[in-house]
Amino acid sequence: MAIKHIPQRTCIACRAVRAKRDLVRVVRTNENRVEADWTGKKAGRGAYLCRQRECWEEILEARRRLADALKLESPIQPDDMARLKEFAASLPPRENSTAVTSKESQ
Questions:
Q1: Which of 8, 36, 62, 66 is deepest in the core (most CB within 10 A)?
Q2: How many Cβ atoms sit within 10 Å of the Cβ of residue 96?
Q3: What is the CATH number of the domain that holds 58?
Q4: What are the angstrom distances between the C-alpha of 42 and each of 24, 28, 29, 77, 96?
Q5: Per DSSP, what are the bridge partners of residue 23?
Q6: What's the predicted TM-score (pTM) here?
Q7: 56-75: pLDDT as tens digits
């Protein structure tokens, strides 16, 4: 019996490698808007973050990292940033993680 492949992605904040379903995708839409994508299926350039408040807060404070990951041509619009911060506030704080970091997987 074949083992099913589970797609892996890296959190752009903490660099932990996790199953794609364990992360939340942030997407730059075709209209150059930035939004959280729970489904992971919206069209546009995406980056992944853990479902932990600290990762979101870290990346929203260092806006350049998010902008670079999404290859934004202009700064994140204030209303998009407000929605992302609101979303981050709804997430649980970090727990002791069992994720494999990129260094551990080598």
A1: 66
A2: 4
A3: 3.30.1230.10
A4: 12, 9, 8, 19, 30
A5: 50
A6: 0.82
A7: 999 999 889 999 999 998 88
